UniProtKB/TrEMBL annotation:
Family, similarity comment: Belongs to the FMP46 family.
Protein's UniProt name: Thioredoxin-like protein
Subcellular localization, as worded in the UniProt entry: Mitochondrion
Pfam families: DUF1687
One GO MF term attached to the UniProt entry: oxidoreductase activity
Gene source species: Tuber aestivum (summer truffle)
Its biological purpose: Putative mitochondrial redox protein which could be involved in the reduction of small toxic molecules.
UniProt xrefs under SUPFAM superfamilies: Thioredoxin-like
Keyword Mitochondrion found: yes
Example of a GO cellular component annotation carried by this entry: mitochondrion
Keywords for this protein: Mitochondrion, Oxidoreductase, Transit peptide
Lineage: Eukaryota, Fungi, Dikarya, Ascomycota, Pezizomycotina
Main location: mitochondrion
Cited InterPro entries: Fmp46, Thioredoxin-like_sf
Top-level division of the source organism's lineage: Eukaryota
Length: 125
């Protein structure tokens, strides 16, 4: 009899190594007791790498298109954000940005409580 194993949830942290908030969120993801109870794959993407247009669209679907300026300050639309990020303004993107691709959620900024809540609510294995 075959038994199918659940694949790990994939979390991506768009990380800025020079940012105190981003370093704190990365440490939380790596060391939190909650993180050790859940199985997930952590993908750390360091600045200046930005989400692809498709990834950005998904992130905005997760948090709400009306919150685009929280991810890319100064952007008024998804198109603005894509143009800014692909046009050499990668530094505009807010980091840390944690994305739970499997469950359609994202945490923008250094809200450690929101990150812990996301970890706590990851589906069990």
């Amino acid at each position: 009899m075959f038994r199918f194993h659940k694949t790990l949830d994939v979390l991506t942290l768009f990380h800025a190594p020079a940012s105190t908030a981003s370093k704190r969120i990365l440490e939380t993801l790596r060391s939190s007791p909650t993180a050790h109870k859940k199985s997930f794959e952590l993908d750390v993407v360091e600045a200046p790498t930005v989400p692809t247009p498709t990834q950005l669209s998904s992130i905005l679907d997760f948090i709400g298109k009306n919150r685009v300026a929280e991810v890319v300050p100064g952007a008024r639309s998804e198109g603005d954000a894509v143009r800014m990020l692909s046009g050499g303004e990668a530094g505009r993107m807010v980091r840390p940005l944690l994305v739970d691709w499997n469950n359609g959620r994202a945490v923008v900024g250094g809200d450690e409580g929101a990150v812990l809540r996301l970890l706590e609510t990851l589906p069990g294995n």
